[in-house]
Design goal:
Length: 113
């Protein structure tokens, strides 16, 4: 690969003034209009405010839902207690009836001797 020297004679000196100036002025570009950006930011702010309101409503609704779930849990606990009482009472009653029946049979057999 050939080496390229940095100080080539065809390149003008950077500190020297240009030999000619352009004859036409550079085109004038329109100034930047910030109204589009401002409008987008305002719409974003409006949307964020609406979301914050909706999130607040959801938080309030979830509190009510939690209270209803607690009440439902209490009802389920009471139902469990009643069913356990009924089943336990039935078992006790069965043993009492069985015991009385067996006692009567044994006492009748003992008296018959």
């Amino acid at each position: 690969m050939p080496k390229v020297s940095r100080g080539s004679p065809s390149r003008p000196d950077e500190d020297a003034p240009p030999s000619s100036y352009p004859e036409v002025a550079p085109p004038q570009y329109a100034r930047a209009d910030h109204s589009f950006t401002l409008q987008a930011i305002m719409e974003l702010q409006k949307t964020v405010a609406e979301l914050a309101t909706k999130v607040g409503h959801l938080a309030e609704d979830s509190k009510g839902l939690g209270e209803r779930l607690d009440k439902l849990g209490d009802k389920v606990d009471r139902l469990r207690m009643w069913s356990a009482s009924i089943i336990g009472g039935s078992v006790v009653a069965w043993f009492l009836i069985w015991g009385v029946t067996m006692w009567r049979k044994e006492s009748a057999a003992w008296l018959a001797r």
